[in-house]
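Reopening: structure tokens for the S-adenosylmethionine complex, inputs below.
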Amino acid sequence: MNDFDWVAMADMLELEGEAETPSVRQALAELKHLTPRWILDVGSGPGVAACRLAAAFPQAEVIAVDGAPELLARAEERAERLGVRLRTRVAEFPAGLADLGPADLVWSARVVHHVGDQQGALDQLAGLLVPGGVLAVVEGGLPARWLPRDLGFGRPGLQARLDAGMAERFNQMRAELPGSVAVVEDWPGMLRAAGLTEVRSKAFLVDHPAPLGDVPRRSVRQALERRRAVLGELLDVEDLAALDRLLDPADPGGVDRRADLFLLTATSVHFGRRP
Ligand SMILES: C[S@@+](CC[C@H](N)C(=O)[O-])C[C@H]1O[C@@H](n2cnc3c(N)ncnc32)[C@H](O)[C@@H]1O
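Re-run output (same inputs, fresh job):
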């Protein structure tokens, strides 16, 4: 695993997963013609999507796979709370996956981009499938939008500058991964290069309009706290001050209180079938 402290990000991952549930639901509806018996969620984190898979395919053995045992413990708690059947397995991606297959459905969301050799990772995920099995990879999509362009304080356009900063951090993260290989991130092309057929990509909308309910609101707070923590050197003083106001629980313009906060994003899922 790389240097991310995934365990420290557990709350954020869980809230993000919950806020993005509408897109997972829509993506799983695309797979409802399948009757998978063995499903892997590789890089499941705290298991929000894995529990959805378990609910959507109650006849299947669903295994949440992750390198972080603490996150898998949360996935188990979640499954118990929701009354769905889920097993977990600690494994490092890609080296530890060899004995996990063969699976009828492999779901892997936002993990391949944390592996140095992304094409190699996709090859390995595709290799876990039975003939006829389906791989669904969540990568790309659109950065989330939460904030009006003009917040009423600071320089308008903060969200676009946060996105630019995160894109820069993402480049650094990729460059520092062990065995990092540059590749054209053409996800459908990469699934085809992994030997899959019937490849298609579809984007699913997540649209929580203002005023935000508790879960998406807390998810936005977590995401902004993360940006405050990792973008300190990349933002100017005015933007940092605006971020601090947004994160101040007592500030009426802060994310806990403002009525105009929303959550709008699109999740891209790339599907392919093993011939
Ligand atoms: C961005 S999170 C995505 C979690 C979840 N799939 C989602 O969409 O919310 C990445 C997850 O992949 C796991 N992960 C990252 N690199 C890994 C590796 N090399 N082996 C196993 N798990 C890894 C992390 O522990 C984390 O749970």
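The chain is about 40% helix and 20% strand. Residues 102 and 271 are 17 Å apart (CA to CA). Marking as resolved unless the reporter disagrees.
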